[in-house]
Amino acid sequence: MVVTVNLTPEQVLVGVGVLLALAAVWRIGSRRARKAAEAARASARAVSLAGRVLFTAAVFVGVQWLVIANPGNTTLLLVVLALPDLIAAYVLTRTLTVTSLDTTRRGNRR
């Protein structure tokens, strides 16, 4: 049994056009999906960071409250009150410090 297909040039062009259209729609859809996934990851990172910050702050407040509620050791009180300030100062200093790398494409000449 031999199957013979007789297609006109117009039918071949329509078939090629449909295949190109499907490929274009697939690429556009995959780009949109990738952008949506990146946006979802970015918002998840922000929520995760906020959660970690709140948890750490709650731990600091809890420890400080325990030390203040049970007075007696002045050194421990000063350490517990100063430690979060030192951590915050370090983080802010690192965040606000501007560093620049003035390099060219040929090397590290300035």
From TrEMBL:
The keyword Transmembrane helix applies. Keywords: Membrane, Transmembrane, Transmembrane helix. The chain crosses the membrane at residues 12-29, 49-68, 74-92. This is Uncharacterized protein.
